[in-house]
Amino acid sequence: MEGVDHLAHERNKSEFDVDAMKIVWAGSPHAFVVSDRISKLVASDPGFRKDNRSTLSRKELFKNTLRKAAYAWKTIIDLHLSEEEAAKLRFYVDEPAFTDVHWGMFIPAIKGQGTEEQQQKWLPLAYKMQIIGCYAQTELGHGSNVQGLETTATFDPQTDEFIIHSPTLTSSKWWPGGLGKVATHAIAYALLIVGGREQGVHGFIVQLRSLEDHSPLPGMTVGDIGMKFGNGAYNAMDNGVLRFDHVRIPRNQMLMRVSQVTCEGKYKQSDVPRQLVYGAMLYVRQTIVADASCALSRAVCIATRYSAVRRQFGSQNGGPETQVIDYKTQQSRLFPLLASAYAFRFVGEWLKWLYADVTQRLQANDFSTLPEAHACTAGLKSLTTTATADGIEECRKLCGGHGYLCSSGLPELFAVYVPACTYEGENTVLLLQVARFLMKTVSQLGSSKKPVGTIAYMTRVEHLMQCRCGVQRGFAELSADLVEAAVAHCQLLVVSKFIEKLQQEIPGKGVKQQLEVLCNIYALFLLHKHQGDFLSTGCITPKHAALANDELRSLYSQVRPNAIALVDAFNYTDHYLGSILGCYDGNVYPKLYEAAWKDPLNESVVPDGYHQYIRPLLKQEIRTARL
Ligand SMILES: CCCCCCCCCCCCCCCCCCCCCCC/C=C/C(=O)SCCNC(=O)CCNC(=O)[C@H](O)C(C)(C)COP(=O)(O)OP(=O)(O)OC[C@H]1O[C@@H](n2cnc3c(N)ncnc32)[C@H](O)[C@@H]1OP(=O)(O)O
Ligand SMILES: Cc1cc2nc3c(=O)[nH]c(=O)nc-3n(C[C@H](O)[C@H](O)[C@H](O)COP(=O)(O)OP(=O)(O)OC[C@H]3O[C@@H](n4cnc5c(N)ncnc54)[C@H](O)[C@@H]3O)c2cc1C
Description:
The protein is of the alpha+beta class. It has helices at residues 8-13, 18-26, 29-43, 58-78, 83-93, 98-113, 116-127, 279-309, 328-363, 370-398, 410-417, 427-443, 462-466, 479-502, 511-529, 531-536, 542-559, 563-568, 574-577, 588-597, 610-618, and strands at 133-136, 152-156, 161-165, 173-174, 185-194, 197-207, 220-224, 240-244, 247-250, 259-261, 267-269.
């Protein structure tokens, strides 16, 4: 029935103030107001329609994304939106586009690695989108191993220029988003060669296309790398390939905050650490962690609402069947994901703070917390994206057959989300960075250098003191185990940041209690999942393990009446969710039925191809048919 809230009985069961929880989820009353306003603005504007995306060809999808990006930019200017509002607009438009890399990587790279002078020259152009940038680091032959990049930047003192060149096929830039068809400029990473000596990989601002007619500049071969996984919305992004043939750029287009090349051809390093060349990755990894809670909460919202609508088995005396959300098996798969969405939200908030703190310190030339910030951003990026990608797929399965329909929103969400496990650092490679940081810390235990911040706990772990000697040996051999240790360290971070959140004042009837339940689910679920490790290391006894399991079951029962309200607190519009199964009113079946008839295949009753292929089969005329 139209206009009826089929989930009203669920909403009436909730035991806490949903509006107050919405504010906790958003981060602050102000953030809630902005987010709520912009989400409604996007949802009500037909210019941001996205329900037809899966039926568009690649070319149509790409062009439509160009239109949306231009329309979004016009909206931002016409409505004088602030940076915060513009970011929310991008979020709710919910379409990957070249603009992400321009704002999320190109601009941060110039800010982090450019000199004052370079920032003054390039940032105003980039902020007004008079130039559009991409981040051209990865090559066909190397992505993870940045020091293995083959593109060269050779200084020519005669002309005061760098010659950027792709000496091999494998040195072709490959993957950068926005590069394929849109970007006018790139931050291109290349091996610097000065006076015949190699000086490591550095970033260079390179113009790719004419600002008049968009044609590639001389010496550039550039294009799109082709269709990507899932045929979904990520194909709106023009991930590109680029080859340089002795392209000349002025010397002042090398990003020179970390190191400089003088006009005489002298290579100089500032007193800032070389690792700042990786600064843009630190920034983006932190935003990816914040985004993980959004993608996971979206999938969980869909699966939770649908689980309350869907009924299978269990009818008593002709009464209604059981809502699948009432099955303990469904709860034990769904509620840990609900708890994870909240946990990732809070650890994402904390990481934002950590990033702001390290940025401030770097500006004041205090580099002391950079290794810890790198380990936290890398590790949490890996942990949260892996769990989120797996969680979206689990939500699809939790929705049974209908979860496989595009109109459930889950296949596209998965296809768009899953590359987050690979880009910005392949997840295992990032965990190895965390492991390296942890081993370095262990090797220093007992020395005058005391671990602080997120690794302070190590001094309290007696066992670590005993194994500190020789931990740097055999790293490669033990790397599979060390990666598990890195995951455990990151899990500890997530749990401890959730607990810290609960130590703050949280207003609203029942809100803190609900969060306590979710925090306990998150922690106990991990304990349950890894009980083998806990038992084998003697951290818990079998009795503890059994108690934890009992407690988990009881916690699931406490969540059950609040489940719908807990996902309502995400405050997602139906437009953003893009899912019939997750629609707010729960009126799933009529909407599914209606949507099926809108499929292009149903435009005609007898399909195209009938006369050519079906009829000859049926009439046994296949041998004479022209196929
Ligand atoms: C249609 C809609 C339109 C709307 C329009 C609206 C417009 C306006 C809206 C505005 C809104 C803004 C929206 C913004 C959105 C932002 C979202 C972002 C989008 C993201 C898109 C993603 C695209 C993907 C991009 C990429 O993938 S880029 C390429 C990334 N590549 C990698 O990550 C490579 C991974 N490899 C590495 O990082 C390194 O090579 C390595 C660390 C693995 C190894 O490095 P190395 O070889 O040097 O080895 P070492 O291990 O020896 O390291 C040396 C030391 O350096 C330390 N280290 C390493 N990394 C770092 C670091 N990052 N920071 C600090 N320190 C680092 C090591 O720890 C070592 O230290 P030690 O010597 O002390 O041990
Ligand atoms: C959708 C998408 C968008 C992207 N956008 C951009 C962009 O805008 N700009 C850009 O520059 N790049 C971009 N990339 C590239 C991306 O950053 C790289 O693909 C990523 O860093 C992984 O590198 P790789 O492809 O070389 O993987 P590989 O390193 O080749 O990984 C293959 C396998 O090898 C393993 N492996 C690698 N090294 C080690 C090791 N040392 N120890 C143990 N195992 C190892 C990995 O765990 C993985 O299982 C994008 C990629 C994707 C998918």
